[in-house]
Amino acid sequence: MADSSIPLIERAKKHRERTAIATLTGDFTYDQLLEVSWRVASGLLAGQKDLGGQRVAFLTLRDFDYPAIQWGIWRAGGIAVPLCEVHPPAELNYTISDSGASIVVSHPDFAETLTPIAQNRNVRFLSTEQLLGADRRTLPRVGPERPAMILYTSGTTGKPKGVVLTHANLEAQITTLIKAWEWRREDRILHVLPLHHSHGIINVLCCALWAGAVCDMLPRFDALGVWQKLVDGNATLFMAVPTIYFKLSETWEKSTPEQQQVMSRACRRLRLMVSGSAALPVTAFHRWRSITEHTLLERYGMTEIGMALSNPLHGKRRPGHVGTPLPGVAVRLVDEKGTPATPGASGEIEVSGPTVFKEYWERSTETKAAFRGRWFRTGDVAVLEDGSYRILGRKSTDIIKTGGYKVSALEIEEMLRTHRRVAEVAVVGKEDLEWGERVCAAIVLEEDAALSRQELRKWGKERLAPYKAPSSVVFVKSLPRNSMGKVIKPIVKKLFGS
Ligand code: AMP
Q1: Which residues have CB under 8 Å from 13's CB, separation 6+?
Q2: For ligand 1, what atom is nearest to the CA of residue 378?
Q3: Structural domains of the chain in order of their starting residue, each with its CATH number
C-alpha cells in the first residue's frame, strides 16, 4: 500500500503527469516523486512498520533527490532533519547529535564527511543511491499531529536550537502563502535558496509542490547562472534573501547595456518577486525596481512561525515595511510586561495560530520561555505605521539602549546606506559605562571609494539625532554573514573590542 495520509503528498496524485522538479539534468514528474519517495520510505523502514518519529538527518545535492528523500522520510513516519552542505563537520555533527538522529542519509559527494560522523555516533548510514532504488513496501499512516521536521535556527546567540514542526504546522505555513500569493499550478519557481532553512524548504519547494507547480532547482547560487536562467527559462516566481538581490543587481550593473535590456525584459515576465529572511534595505528595493520594474514583495517570518506578515500581492507595497498578518496568523505587539502596545508605539511581535511550531527539540525550558500563553514571543521589535508593520530589529542585538533612548540599529543602517560611498553597513550597540551602550557602525565602502571616520560621523550627525549617530566606525572589506546571507551581529560587535 502506498497511500499517504500527508496532504502535501496526497495532493501530488492530482498532478501525476505534470513536472514537479526541473533540474539542469532533467525533469521529474509528480508521479516519479510519488514512486521514488515510496521506495525511499521502504528503504528507510527496512522491515519496520513505522519509523515512529526517528530522526533522519540527510544531505543531498540540490536536485530531485532532495524532495524524494524528504517525502520518503515523512512517508516512513520519520522526522526529517535537513543538513546544510556548507556547514563544517563540527556543525554537521552537532545537528546530528542534538537531534538524536538514528539514520544519516547522504549523497555520495558528502559521504567522506558524513560517514565518520555516523560511525562515531554508531547510527545507520545510507547513501541516497541505495534508497532511491529500494523495493516498495507497505507504508504507515502518518497523522497531522506528528512532527515532520526539525530545522536548526541560525543561532546568532547561543547554540542552534532544533525547531520542531508538525505536519499540521507545515500545512498551515504552506496554505497561508498559497492563498496570499495566489500560487497556482501554472506557476514555475526558480529555486536558488539553501535547503536546510524554511525559506527554501517551505516558501519555495513545499508551496510549489502543494500547488502542483514546477520547482526549477539550480545546483547552487551564482548570480550569472541565475540571470541566465531568468533569461532562458519561463519562471513566474522568484524568492530570495536581500543579499541575493544585492548580488543580482551588482551583476546587472556590470553587464553591457544590451545584456541589461535582455535581463530586465526577462524579469518582467515574472508575476512576483519576493524578499525576506532579513530586512530589505530601502536602497535595494529601489535599485531592483529601477533594474526590473518589479516592486519586491517583502515579507517577515521566522523558522518557529513560518511567515507572519506580508506586503500585499495586489495593492501598495511599502519599502521598509513588511505589511500585514497573513491569513490565519494572529499578530500583536506587546510592551515589556506583555501588555498590548499602545497605538503607534513599538513593541515585541508575538504570534499565535496553527503555523506556530510545536517545541524546541528536547529543550523544554527554552520552549516554555518562548511562549506567553498561546503567544510565541518572536524577540523581534516592530511598529505599526498606517496599517503596515515596520521591523525595528531583534530585541537582543538590534535595539540599542543609549543614553536613556532606545534606538533601532536597522533604522540607523537605512540612513547610513544612503551615503553614496557606503555599500553595506551593520550597526551594533557596544556596552559603555557612560551611555549604557554606544552606537557602533561597521562599514563596507563602495569599490575604490574613500571616506574617513570623521567625514562619516559628521555626515551622520547632520542626518540623525545626536544619540543615534554612530560614535565608533570601522571600515571592513565584508560583513560576517551566515549561510542565509544574514549579518552575524555578535561577530560585528567584536570588531569594537571585547
Ligand atoms: P530565521 O528563523 O532564520 O528565518 O530568521 C528569522 C529572523 O529573521 C526574524 O526573527 C527576523 O529577525 C529576521 N527577519 C525575517 N524577515 C525579515 C524582514 N523582512 N525584515 C527584517 N527582519 C526579518
Answers
A1: 30, 34
A2: 10
A3: 7-143 (3.40.50.980), 399-494 (3.30.300.30)
Contact 235, 203 (CB under 8 A): no
- Per-residue burial over 344-371, b if 16 or more Cβ lie within 10 Å, else e, is eebbbbbbbbbbbbbbbbebeeebeebe
Amino acid identity of residue 57, one-letter, is A
Distance 303 CA to ligand 1 centre (A): 9
Ligand 1 centroid, distance to 48 Cα (angstroms): 40
Half-sphere exposure of 28 (CA within 13 A, CB side): 21
pLDDT in tens, 64-107: 999 999 999 999 999 999 999 999 999 999 999 999 999 999 99
Q: Which residues of the chain have pLDDT under 50?
A: 1
Residues near ligand 1 (Cβ within 6 A): 153-154, 198, 276-279, 298, 300-303, 322, 378, 380, 391, 394, 484
Nearest CA to ligand 1 atom 20: 279
Whether the Cβ atoms of residue 49 and residue 25 lie closer than 8 Å to each other: no
pLDDT given for residue 451 in this prediction: 93
